[in-house]
Every structure is written in C-alpha cells, then in structure tokens.
Amino acid sequence: MQVHKSIFALVALTVIFSCTRRNVSSTVGSTSQVESRIESILSQMTLAEKIGQMNQVSAGGDVNNYVDALRKGQIGSILNEVDPVKINEFQRLAVEESRLGIPLLVSRDVIHGFHTIFPIPLGLAATFDPALTEEGARVAAIEATAQGIRWTFSPMLDIARDPRWGRIAEGSGEDPYLDARMAEAMVHGYQGRTADSTSMAACIKHFVGYGAAEGGRDYNSTFLTERQLRNIYLPPFEAAVKAGAMTLMTSFNDNDGVPSTGNTFVVKDVLRDEWGFDGLVVTDWNSMGEMINHGFGVDRKDVAQKAVNAGVDMDMMTFGFVSHLEELVKSGAVKEKTIDNAVRNILRVKILLGLFENPYINVEAAKAVQYAPEHLASARKTVEESVILLKNDGILPLNGTPRILVTGPLANAPHDQLGTWAFDGEKSHTVTPLKTLQERFPGRVEYVPGLTFSREKRSGFADVVAAAKRADVVLVFLGEEAILSGEAHSLADLNLKGSQSELLAALKTAGKPIVATVIAGRPLTIERDLPNVDAMLYSFHPGTMGGPALANLIFGDVNPSGKAPITFLRTVGQAPLYYAHNMTGRPYNGETLLDDIPAEAGQTSLGNTSYYLDYGAYPLFPFGYGLSYTTFAYSCIGLDKDTYKADDTISISFTLSNTGAYDGTEVVQVYIRDLVGSITRPVKELKAFERINLKSGESRTLTIQIPVQELAFTGLDGIKKVEPGEFRLWVAGDSASGTPVSFTII
Ligand code: BGC
Q1: Residue 6: its pLDDT value, please?
Q2: Residue-range domains of the chain with CATH
Q3: Among 280, 342, 651, 700, which has the highest number of CB atoms less than 10 A from its own CB?
C-alpha cells in the first residue's frame, strides 16, 4: 500500500506544480515524443479506424455484444463497465485483436468517490478545503483505476444559483472563485501530480452554462450573454484547463439558441483557440442526437456534421459519428483534417495515461485497495469539514453519555446517505448515524424512526413523542433521499418533504432538547423548521462515513467548520438569490413589508428598493455562513498600500482571534467590490479564502495576498482587464459580515 502513503503526503507538497497537462505525461516521454507517436499511429489509420476512435459506447454487460466492433476498431471508448475481468477482456479485444491495437479509454461517472463515497460535490465545496478535496479525488482515482477505469466524468463545474435545479448537488455551488479552486483540486487529484497507473483523466463538465437552466428545470434553455459567460461561467473551466484537465464534456443546454454540442463559439473560439486546449472533447450522453430535438439539426447526419465542425472529438451514445462521418468526409462537408485533429486529441489522452504500455489491470490487486482504512479516514475527515452548523442555542456539543432518542428518515438510510451519482458505492459499507451512535453509546440509544423515508406522509407521532420523553436529548436526522437531487431531479418546492416538519413539531412538544441534522442534496428551505430545534447541522449527502463524522461533530470531538457554498433561501420564491448580484439602481436600504401597507394604499414606487414585499431582501443564511462551537473575531484589518498598479499584489493583514471556549477552525473569506466599472459590478466577489486553526483564546496576525490581476473582468470593450478606480475589501467569516477597507487601482 505504498501508493496510499505517498498520496497523503502530496497535499503537503509545496513545490510549484507547473500547470500544464504535459506534466502529467512525464513518464511517457516528452511532448515532442508524444506528438510524433500520435502522428505515427495516425498515419497508419484508415478513415474508418479514425472515426471508430471517435465513438464511445455504453458497454455495461456482455462483452460478446462488442467483439466484432472492437476487432474492426469501431470503438474508441466505453463507459459503464466496472467489472475488472470484463474490462480486461474489452482491452484484450481492442489491443490484441484489432488491426492497430489501440487501447480503449474506459470511463465512468466517478463523481464523489468510487467505492468509498465522499460527500457530494456541494458538500466538498462546503469544506473550502482544496487540499482535502484533492486528497479525496486521489482516493477515488486509486480505487477506480485499480478496477480499470482511467477516465472519470468529473468534476462538474457548472455554477448553480438556483437550488431547484437537482444537479446543484454535483457542483461547487454559486461562486466562480470557489468553483475554480475546487476544480483545480479535483483535476490534480484525479490525474495525479505525476503520471502512473493510478492517473485517471478528469473530464470538466458541462461546457457551458448548464447550471443556469431556466427556472432550475433540468435540460432547459439558458440565455447567458457573452459577458456573463466570461465573468461567471467560464472562469472555473479556464482554471481547470490551466490545471491540466485532459478532457471536457459539452452540455445539454442551448445557450441563446445554440446547443453546446454544436456551439463553435464556446468550443472552437474560446476553448481551443483562446485557451489552447488540446485535450479530448466528448459530448454528453446523446447530446449530439438531442440537437435534433432542439430543432438545431434535421437528422443524425446533420447534427454529426455540426458537432464535429464545432470541435467535438468523441460522440457519447448518439452513434452519429460512426454512422455518418465517412460520407460527410467524402462529400466534403467535413474535412479529413478535422477528423485527424479529433483523433490526435483522443490518442494523446491514451498515450498520456500510459494505456499503450499498460492496458490491463491486476484483478486481485484491484480488490485490495477498495475501502482501504486510509480512504475511509479521508472520507470521514472530509465530512467533518463539510458539515455546516446553522443554529446552536448552546446545546452543542453534547457531552457525557445521555439517553438518546435517534429518529428521522435519514438516521439509518445507508443508500440515501450516499447521495446522487454514487453508482459504485455499496450501502453495505455505509456507516449511518444510528449505527455509530449505537456502537458509541451501548444501551443508551433508542431508535424510533418516525418516518421510514423522506417523502413518507403520516399523522400522529405519539410513539416518537413518548420515546422523546424517555430521553435526555433527541437526535433527529431529516432531509432528502438521494433520488430527490441530481440529474433530472429538479423540484419546485424545497421544503422538507413528507411529514418531516410535522415530526419536528411533534417532537418539540416533548420538551426535550432537539438536535436536528439535515442530510440533503441541496439547500432546502428550512426556515419554518428552525424554531422547533435547539441546534441544526446541515450535511450535504455525506457518503460512506457520514455516521462517524456526524457523531464526532455532535459530541464535540471535532468542531464544525463547514461554510455554505450556496445561499440558503427563506422560501423557494426567492430563487435565484445569490450574494454576488450586481449593484442595482435602487440598492436595498430598509423594507416596507406587506403588513406595513395600509388598505387601499395608493401606488408608490419612489424610494423603494429591490426586494420582495413578503420575504424581504435577505436569504435565510448567506453564502459563506457557518457557525462553530467557538467564536472568532477579526481586528486590525489593513492593506500594505492605499494604491495599487495592475501588476501589484495586495497584501492584507489582519488579526484573527478565537474568542470562545473551544479550539476551532475558521474559514477566512476575502471579498471585494469594484465601485465603478465600464459595466455594473457585483456587490461583493470572493477573491480568497483560507482555513485557519486557532486554539481557544489564541490570536494570530495573518496575511493573505491577492494579485491585482485577480480583480480583472471582461468589461464593455470585451477585453479582460482590471479597470482602475476605487475598491472596497472585506475580511470576514461570511459574505454578509465585516467592515470594509478601501483601496484604489491606478
Ligand atoms: C450526464 C453526465 C454524465 C453522462 C454519462 C449524462 O446524463 O449529464 O453528467 O457524465 O450522463 O453518464
């Protein structure tokens, strides 16, 4: 298990990693060696063999279905086969029985762990800990590659500002800066910082704007302007490309009328020409075929032409390339050099992963690394950092050995705790809160579920209330089943489903302290439930090790430090509501609410500002929010200068003090506001964050540096640059706190 030890050491490495994909290839030769190898293979290929490389098929099941196609070189990649014996057989047919012996790229959605399941990506983002996130992605790569999977369709970098969208679970939330840092971490984790047999190609997805689906309805249209793309939606992708991401997936949505899979502007102009991406571009599942449904092409031949000419290299499950590219080339509608380039991009990934040298895996060794103790420990630590403490009336942390009532539909839900896209996680390995608590406090735990699953409707909770009266404390685990978030699982109502709120209200009548933990795939609207609990922890689906981590948090072995990577709404009608909204012409400055308006009031608007009459201007919890068992104070915030030039670095110093009774970790966040621009600017933008551990009573003076170039944006002239002018800067524990300091850029 040598390999694991080195992985955990890597997070501490301080060497500067040069951000190019080439570094990943160090063991397979220099760039020019790789390129000449590509040319040599390409020169031997027939047109049909080239097109075969551009075809990806879902192969789960019987290898025999594919023998002929593999021998003829008609498949370049498979997805959805995880049986290592079958994967070896697929590779054998491609490598030993096809004319040129080109190995297959074996792919899978390894989204937040392979067997050892980590928190869903929204939960990873709540850690604000890129190093730990990288470690988790490395664990996923070790487990998945051992079984023959060398390409994962992760990370998802879609900025999501509407929690109705079910896929909000799969990304890092609403903020481009946080998303970009997480993107880099996952790319490094999956691919490894140096290439070996545990390197798994990352696939950044979905390119682009998919998270802005109208109304949060999955697969819906988006209407993002080029400036919104450049300032909000593209930056995480650009960061991931710079970090060396080997592949990218186009998205399902049409943006302003152009489906991504046929979008020359985003794929060719931006990704290829501006960013110089020479990795592999794959479609989403049948997203080429869906261009026919969009009314963007008449038939499969038409959409195949549009996709390949837009810069797509590989077709996932439309079979448009294998069926039509040959005739399209012959008719001149597609140039053979376009096909050659696509094949180069595909071969490059195969060569860089070392697949030509090592196409096979050792089936026995594959078993040994799954659920390794250090993998489980890493997953547990990640949950501990990811859980957000939203409310604490002083009850937490619990101590001693109280008599505990464990209740609620997520207390013992080994499948649902894993969250969405946990294909290979096995519920038999999940450690639930109930299991942990029963082991930790033998004879002290009574379990009355109240509801068996999150949507269950029931009236009368006499059994649960009676049990609560027998206990010293009630630990209730609520939330969403895994199936309620993720792809194709958008919701119009974000309250706790079924009779969960009624369960809480009933529990309250028992008069015992109630600690609620919400386990969900998105930020639910829990405002009405908060008064019924003494404390609330929020855990985005935590994965395999949720139980031990939550128990450690509730009993104070670990102090909560997770922060909201997404705004928590009071009611779904506020969506979309995000902290980095633009400055309006009528900035919010106090509220007249519904009840303040007299009957038969005359029409007024003057002096009013941007908010809802019934729900005001604010969310329930802002981006970046999260409590601790201790308290932190910020003081002496200062900048090294008043005025900076575009190539300077801003050095921010401040004192952070742990003013409470517990040791703890604060996620320090730095926000800026650009007061005047050539276009209106966001009221605040996150530009740096850092996790700081402090002992109770400890104070430390810290420095955070931000290159002025980090403040650049694409303005009216379409050029990304820092515009001179006045700025404000906050150093705080969330996006709604702190007192700003000023500086000027000249
Ligand atoms: C999803 C992708 C996923 C692909 C392959 C699609 O439905 O949108 O995110 O990677 O399926 O499973």
Answers
A1: 34
A2: 374-554 (3.40.50.1700), 578-618 (no CATH), 632-745 (2.60.40.10)
A3: 280
